[in-house]
Design a protein that fits this description.
Elements: H1 12-20, H2 33-50, E1 56-60, H3 66-73, E2 77-82, H4 85-98, E3 102-106, H5 109-115, E4 120-126, H6 135-145, E5 146-157, H7 161-174, H8 191-200, E6 204-214, E7 219-223, E8 229-235
Parallel strand pairs: 1-2, 1-4, 2-3, 4-5
Antiparallel strand pairs: 5-8, 6-7, 6-8
Helix pairs in contact: 2-3, 5-6, 6-8
Protein name: Ubiquinone biosynthesis O-methyltransferase
Keywords: Methyltransferase, S-adenosyl-L-methionine, Transferase, Ubiquinone biosynthesis
Catalytic activity: a 3-demethylubiquinol + S-adenosyl-L-methionine = a ubiquinol + S-adenosyl-L-homocysteine + H(+); a 3-(all-trans-polyprenyl)benzene-1,2-diol + S-adenosyl-L-methionine = a 2-methoxy-6-(all-trans-polyprenyl)phenol + S-adenosyl-L-homocysteine + H(+)
């Protein structure tokens, strides 16, 4: 398949940032520890809503493959797309350890949507929208990739003073859960904005749910508080 990127909705600085850390992607005590900790929550939430077994799934911005692999382990036929050679290399290498099958490709969401529209039962795009220059374009691509009646899942960070305090100051500078500079506050997306992107792309927003972190118990949970991290579940009309 031709994976030439004709629509480059990516920030080279963001790609470089995560490429430099790619070798640590599967180290559960590394900079990616939060991803390992939240993955069971987001995986169960997706699976409970769509039943992953037997579904054709695409994970946009798959990185090193943490979510993609876990969905494959639940019986899904998974394609993972990303623009980082190093992250994809780590993802492919980890398949030898997990003995799972994931089709990893270096291609943009926009390009694969143009090549394979309405091909997937489930589309996921998690912790990625806040890192691209044009999140609405990624949302539109996700919508195009979904089959009629298919489900599309997003997760990102809200934009308000509380999210700046918790996700940037708290997580990067005080608790040091993430490397400094991981997030750029101006790129955070309000739920109303993401919902509008989804509706403009022809999706129906079915659920907006928050994800919280307790720094004392060090436990993540899903709930009503969408002030910082949140997830959105959409459906493409049949």
């Amino acid at each position: 398949m031709n994976t030439t990127v004709t629509q480059q909705n990516a920030d080279p600085a963001e790609l470089q940032k995560f490429s430099e850390l790619a070798h640590r992607w599967w180290d559960a005590e590394s900079e990616f520890k939060p991803l390992h900790q939240i993955n069971p929550l987001r995986l169960d939430w997706i699976d409970q809503n769509v039943g992953l077994a037997g579904k054709r799934v695409i994970d946009i911005g798959c990185g090193g493959g943490i979510l993609a692999e876990s969905m494959a382990a639940r019986g899904a036929q998974v394609t993972g797309v990303d623009l980082s050679d190093k992250a994809l290399g780590v993802a492919r290498l980890h398949l030898f350890e997990s003995n799972l099958t994931v089709d990893y490709r270096k291609i943009s969401a926009e390009d694969i949507a143009a090549a394979e529209p309405e091909s997937f039962d489930v589309v996921t795009c998690m912790e990625m929208l806040e890192h691209v220059p044009d999140p609405a374009s990624t949302v539109a691509a996700a919508a195009r990739l979904a089959k009629p009646g298919g489900s599309v899942f997003f997760s990102t960070l809200n934009r308000n003073p509380k999210s700046y305090l918790f996700a940037v100051i708290g997580a990067e500078y005080i608790l040091r859960m993430l490397p400094r500079g991981t997030h750029e506050y101006a790129r955070f997306i309000k739920p109303s904005e993401l919902s509008r992107f989804a509706r403009d792309a022809g999706l129906e927003v079915e659920e907006v749910i928050g994800m919280t972190y307790n720094p004392i118990t060090k436990v993540y949970a899903l709930g009503r508080d969408t002030d910082v991290n949140y997830l959105v579940r959409c459906r493409k009309p049949a």
